[in-house]
Amino acid sequence: MISDVLSEKNIVVDSVTYRKEGTINFLEIVLDKEDGIDLDTIVDATNIINPIVDEMDFIDESYVMDVVSKERGEE
């Protein structure tokens, strides 16, 4: 669901991972864009993603949503 909305802004969902580290659960969403993603784009994308994930309500336990940019190697 988030892929469709973000694609309108030329943002690609690279991966979505749910994992537990210690006692904390993380929902990590990795985003990519043709020319890379800056912090403002991550903030905008997070503001788009948050209500969609909240509405889907597919995770019963508490978690931290972590929206990050895809790492790029040196070019």
Structural summary, described in words:
- It is a single chain.
- The protein is an alpha+beta fold.
- It has one domain: GMP Synthetase, Chain A, domain 3 (2-Layer Sandwich).
- The protein contains two helices and three strands, in the order αββαβ.
- Strands 1-2-3 form a three-stranded mixed beta sheet.
- A hairpin with a 2-residue loop joins strand 1 and strand 2.
- The N and C termini lie far apart (32 Å).
CATH class: Alpha Beta
Distance between the termini: 32 Å
Cα gyration radius (Å): 13 Å
Number of helices: 2
Key phrases:
GMP Synthetase, Chain A, domain 3; alpha+beta; globular; 3 strands; 75 residues
Brief synopsis:
Helix content is 32%, strand content 36%. It has 75 residues and is of the alpha+beta class. It has a single domain, classed as GMP Synthetase, Chain A, domain 3 (2-Layer Sandwich).
Topology summary:
Elements: H1 2-7, E1 11-21, E2 24-33, H2 39-56, E3 64-69
Parallel strand pairs: 2-3
Antiparallel strand pairs: 1-2
